[in-house]
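Write out a sequence, fold above all:
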Amino acid sequence: MTPADAVTRTAAATASSSPAQARPVLSARGIEAWHVESPVVPLIALAFTFEGGAAQDPEGKAGTAQMLARLLDEGAGPHDSDAFQERLAARAIELSFHAGPDAIGGSLKMLVKHADEAIELLALALAQPRFDQAAIERVRAQMLAGLRYQQNDPGVMASRRFFAEAYPGHPYGRPSSGTVESVSSITRDDLVAMHRRLLARGRVKVAAVGAINEEALVRALDAAFGALPEGGALTAVPATSITGLGRRIVVDLDVPQSVLRFGTDGVPWRDPDFIPAYVLNHILGGGAFTSRLFQEVREKRGLAYSVGTSLVSHRAASMTWGYTATKNERVAECLTVIADEIARLTSDGPSDDELQKAKDYLTGSYALGFDTSTKIAHQLVQIAFEGLGIDYIARRNGLIGAVTQADIRRAAARTLGDGKLLVVAAGRPTAM
């Protein structure tokens, strides 16, 4: 082992052990954070998530939450966009925001010596975004350019159509980034109203990792989030499940190969069967080079360069969904192989050796998601958002290790079921 390898392994081991020691911290204004103190490096990483995201977009205004997220650091308080960005750059402060279907959140990373200024800028971005018209039009132009470019991207078009067919008439069926028409129609008033609804201190989850003690963190929480309103009720997102199972849909694009998106039922992260379903998914298509689909579709038949599946868990829906791409004339063959492998795994289950290898990989690789302060903060805030408990990191590998063949079969029955898939192909397949 080289000295560099030793340093890397030591750093990873240190980082991976610290998340399990997270402690809850409560500020004077009632803002809770999960805190991991680590004074080794003079850095602080903060991650935060507010309940409510693109599913709260007004009717006909898809993309509002995403535009809001992109505008929060485009000027705030007394600083226009240029001045705000210059203050961030002058102190090497990294601040970003993002929006998903169920949440809007962000992250902040700063040196300890610039922490006060970084928290001040975060507070301004959250509570006093300017929404200057020039900034709105600049961000709108960027979003529209991206949307127009994506109209020729088979992967994007397949994914959009898939979710529209899976959740018709439901907020999850709308594209989070909006459409050319919807983004063009978003007004400043829409953004102000969305900001007022979503950014509330009563709905925020926070994680802080790094060289900050509990007393300093308590002050930082109130400074960053204390000026936000407590927040009222969000629009209820009705529970739904994937529709159209058994259907195969083509999005016509003149490209030599078709991009495929396919999916079926799932279980949410909070469900007791999520961990067995997670192990099952790793065996089916989640393991990059070892999964059954990778072996059958790519290695044995050369049908595709990549193929995989993952679990999607939203607040009001969940699914198992997958992806691949293959020549137009081999789409039907590829789908047959995928369907056959799902049926075989459902009926026969994995071998004992296959199950053990999956569990060994999933438990052994878990620490790799905690090798930086920012990764730790994001993992913690996601766990908090899902309501899994502050001890989840300490429990997680034990839950995976306890998965049995009976658990796998139960999860397969609930997720893969009868094997029917909703399939969308973007391209010109000769047969489906």
Summary: The two ends are 51 Å apart (CA to CA). The chain has 16 helices and eleven strands. The domain at 248-427 is CATH 3.30.830.10 (Cytochrome Bc1 Complex; Chain A, domain 1). Residues 1-17 have pLDDT under 50 and may be disordered.
